[in-house]
Design a protein that fits this description.
Helix content is about 10%, strand content about 35%.
């Protein structure tokens, strides 16, 4: 039975990726069907992942359930959570692994959650571009083994971790970013029991109980080439990258301390505070200094300011009357930060 399971999982990975780091299929920049052969990245480093355009279907009409209705999640599974206005939502990795993009509305904002399972990067993009609403889809292309969405309004191709459009009518355009917090299902349930969770009722037949890329999360291998192999940290270590005025910096989970950890730092002259907890599996950055840690029993409330206001991991007070400003940030595998942001500083 175990052999059959491994074979099934291998076939699943082969169907989705249809390639390896030994025989990737390069796109043809001179393809007469291409709408624009002028790329902001080297087109010889853009690879066809295999499924083709929309072969990995985005979720365009997402359904949400209450926490007690979710039966396909394990406590250690990861989710991406966000609060906009009074609305708190979480998006499970087991669904995102199969769909990569969710076009949604959160509060009064039109947001696309773009997620790349190969780089472990989950980033919120605004869906209003030049005053017009659009949706994003999965192009099937990869650059530095990272997701390349396309927008359905202009069919332009984007690079998720470069955070810009690299080919087409919107070339050079940068999306408005929304920061999500990544943590475990167990931590999220305890923190936000009344939140809404993206359902596995997507309209597609997928086995959301199976991770589609085999041992990828725990091995040291990549499925497609990258331009820079930065070996300062393990390839698949999850780190938080914070970007302020185009200057990035990486922050690690404290490997020796299992209490709340607070770091005061500055990027490009902007003071920031980074708070993390290895066991509860969250790390988040906020603008400003002068915060103090709360006792761990107050989770999800983690810090307070000089006026005594307490803030949770999403940066909100318990009544939502105040919130902290969050710099652009997202968690990703170390190799992706090292290849997209050559020489990125690592907080020591």
């Amino acid at each position: 039975m175990k052999t059959k399971y491994i074979l099934l999982l291998s076939l699943c990975c082969a169907f989705i990726m249809c390639g390896s780091d030994e025989d990737p299929q390069v796109i043809d920049p001179q393809d007469p069907n291409a709408t624009n052969v002028d790329w902001l990245v080297d087109p010889n480093l853009v690879f066809d992942g295999g499924p083709g355009k929309d072969g990995i279907p985005s979720v365009d009409n997402p359904h949400f359930d209450d926490i007690d209705e979710i039966d396909f999640m394990n406590d250690e599974d990861l989710v991406l959570g966000i609060r906009i206005g009074d609305e708190i939502k979480a998006y499970p990795h087991p669904v995102l692994d199969w769909h990569e993009i969710v076009n949604d509305e959160i509060g009064d904002q039109k947001v696309a959650l773009t997620y790349c399972p190969l780089t472990g990067t989950g980033i919120g993009w605004g869906r209003e571009i030049n005053g017009e609403e659009t949706r994003f889809g999965v192009s099937g292309l990869l650059y530095n083994t990272n997701l390349m969405p396309f927008d359905r309004a202009t069919e332009s191709t984007w690079s998720q971790q470069r955070l810009d459009c690299v080919n087409g009518e919107l070339q050079g355009f940068k999306p408005e970013l929304y920061s999500f917090v990544e943590t475990t299902w167990a931590s999220w349930k305890a923190a936000y029991p009344n939140s809404k969770i993206l359902s596995n009722r997507t309209g597609y037949s997928r086995n959301y109980g199976i991770y589609p890329y085999g041992s990828y999360r725990t091995n040291n291998s990549l499925l497609f080439p990258i331009t820079i192999d930065d070996t300062r940290l393990p390839k698949k270590e999850r780190v938080l990258g914070v970007i302020i005025n185009e200057e990035p910096k990486a922050y690690r989970f404290d490997q020796e301390n299992n209490d709340l950890v607070l770091i005061e730092d500055a990027i490009n002259g902007q003071a920031i505070t980074v708070v993390s907890h290895r066991d509860k599996n969250f790390i988040a950055a906020f603008e400003g200094h002068g915060f103090s840690l709360l006792a761990d029993i107050d989770f999800p409330f983690i810090i307070q300011d000089s006026q005594g206001f307490q803030y949770d991991i999403l940066g909100f007070t318990n009544d939502g009357s105040a919130s902290l400003t969050k710099p652009d940030q997202f968690i990703g595998y170390w190799f992706s930060w090292g290849t997209f942001y050559e020489g990125i500083d690592i907080y020591e």
